[in-house]
């Protein structure tokens, strides 16, 4: 499609239709007649060679093509709203409405995501946050197309290109969480990798073992962990660890978060320490819109407020 020949006023109709999914309601919001909206939709369908919306008893349902345009249109409309404002007036998130989509590992559901949500509810109450499960793959197309605004990547192994910028939010240390039934519960020393590998474990990760940075590292020396239970999230860990002899490995901040609701569990450090970075990825193309820049700063601020779970190596509490 040649964008130079498209009446850009039609995009406003499409954006409102994606929100309302009703010709009558879209017409009311646009201050035009329903027939004008129907005429605009007919032109849009010809331009995109797609029905865009299908009439059903539940309303006008967008097609896959229409849904793919939803996020780019949202960014475009928000940017135009920002451009209309006073260039000398600082951006105020409390006066805007935005939806941001982030890909994040499940471990962050207990740490960074709650901290970020608190920031948003306080300073940007009309903003929404949609979190989807992080996968070990390239997110360049997702980020540059606007489908994803930010990616929170563990271990620095997410492929990136020239159009992706990144910054490190924090360093995680892999620790073990154990309950009273575990053989390592009473230990006051850091657990060696050899002893660590003798323990039967829970695997609470959303990606396969073959994609986990620790298991990849162990496999290079023909060593492997033994899993008695694999689960897709961290939700059941506390209860299982309290009532069995199993242990679970996780980032130290996540372990500290679980301890808040399961205080009888213990954090045990591993030696030599296994560490990895949590990085923030975003589109590096052009000048960022104010909302995007503000959100990036909010994520960084939220990350700085999440406390470490393992004691510092030289502190009195360190093993």
Describe the structure.
This is LysR family transcriptional regulator. Residues 6-63 form the HTH lysR-type domain. Keywords: DNA-binding, Nodulation, Transcription, Transcription regulation. Belongs to the LysR transcriptional regulatory family. With 319 residues, this protein is α/β, with parallel strands linked by helices. It folds into 3 domains: 3-80, Orthogonal Bundle (Arc Repressor Mutant, subunit A), CATH 1.10.10.10; 98-170 and 277-304, D-Maltodextrin-Binding Protein, domain 2; 173-275, D-Maltodextrin-Binding Protein, domain 2, CATH 3.40.190.10. 37% of the residues lie in helices and 22% in strands. It contains 11 helices and 12 strands. It has helices at 9-20, 23-30, 34-48, 64-84, 112-123, 140-145, 193-196, 213-219, 237-243, 252-261, 290-304, and strands at 53-56, 59-62, 99-104, 128-133, 150-154, 164-178, 191-192, 200-203, 226-230, 247-251, 266-271, 275-283. Strands 3, 4, 5, 6, 7, 8, 9, 10, 11 and 12 form a 10-stranded mixed beta sheet that branches. Helix 1 packs across helix 2 and helix 2 packs across helix 3 (34-48). The longest helix is centred in the first third of the chain and has 21 residues, at 64-84. The protein is elongated, with a radius of gyration of 24 Å.
Keywords for this structure?
two-stranded antiparallel ribbon, alpha/beta, disordered C terminus, ten-stranded mixed sheet, about 325 residues, 12 strands, D-Maltodextrin-Binding Protein, domain 2, 3 domains, WH-like_DNA-bd_sf, 11 helices
């Amino acid at each position: 499609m040649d964008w130079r020949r498209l009446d850009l006023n039609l995009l406003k109709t499409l954006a409102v239709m994606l929100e309302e999914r009703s010709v009558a309601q879209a017409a009311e919001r646009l201050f035009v007649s329903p027939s004008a909206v129907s005429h605009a939709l007919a032109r849009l369908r010809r331009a995109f060679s797609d029905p865009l919306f299908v009439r059903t008893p539940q309303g006008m349902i967008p097609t896959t093509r229409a849904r793919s345009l939803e996020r780019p249109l949202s960014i475009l409309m928000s940017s135009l709203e920002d451009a209309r404002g006073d260039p000398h007036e600082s951006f105020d998130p409390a006066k805007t409405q935005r939806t941001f989509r982030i890909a994040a590992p499940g471990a962050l559901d207990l740490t960074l995501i709650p901290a970020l949500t608190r920031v948003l509810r306080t300073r940007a109450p009309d903003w929404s946050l949609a979190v989807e499960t992080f996968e070990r793959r390239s997110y360049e197309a997702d980020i540059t197309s606007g489908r994803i605004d930010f990616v929170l990547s563990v271990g620095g192994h997410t492929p990136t290109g020239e159009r992706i910028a990144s910054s490190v939010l924090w360093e995680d240390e892999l620790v073990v969480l154990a309950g009273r039934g575990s053989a390592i519960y009473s230990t006051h020393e850091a657990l060696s990798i050899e002893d660590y590998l003798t323990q039967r474990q829970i695997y609470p990760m959303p990606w396969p073992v073959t994609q986990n940075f620790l298991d990849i590292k162990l496999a290079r020396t023909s060593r492997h962990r033994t899993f008695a239970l694999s689960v897709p999230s961290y939700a059941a860990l506390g209860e299982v660890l309290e009532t069995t002899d199993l242990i679970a490995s996780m980032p130290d901040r996540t372990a500290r978060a679980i301890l808040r609701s399961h205080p009888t569990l213990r954090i045990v450090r591993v030696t030599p320490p296994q560490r990895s970075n949590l990085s923030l990825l975003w589109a590096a193309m052009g000048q960022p819109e104010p909302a995007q820049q503000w959100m990036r700063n909010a994520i960084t601020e939220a990350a700085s407020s999440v406390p470490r779970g393992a004691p510092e190596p030289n502190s009195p509490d360190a093993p």
